[in-house]
Amino acid sequence: xxxxxxxxxxxxxxxxxxxxxxxxxxxxxxxxxxxxxxxxxxxxxxxxxxxxxxxxxxxxxxxxxxxxxxxxxxxxxxxxxxxxxxxxxxxxxxxxxxxxxxxxxxxxxxxxxxxxxxxxxxxxx
Length: 125
Known about the structure:
Elements: H1 5-20, E1 28-29, E2 42-48, E3 52-59, H2 62-67, H3 71-78, E4 86-92, H4 99-113
Antiparallel strand pairs: 1-4, 2-3, 2-4
Helix pairs in contact: 1-4
């Protein structure tokens, strides 16, 4: 578990590398129920095959987050992306009991990547 800002930066970079550089074919395809995505906590990225990261977020239940809909899917549709070109990269987070830590990790990743579908990027403290 990260204990200082340097540790947070390292952990955030590892998470970002895992969701940004996972081969596209290994990312979860879009479905109606998202049954292949476990209902576990994690950080996720909505990715486009060639345009890269579209949206990054965190959630207590990955499957629940997507099965109820997600604005990134609407925006991808409005941008006329084909559904086979949009997938979800997920990284499970075992330490969900520390929401402040996850919020900070997400903020570091968002500041580093500025995905187009994330409307507000948290400012650095």
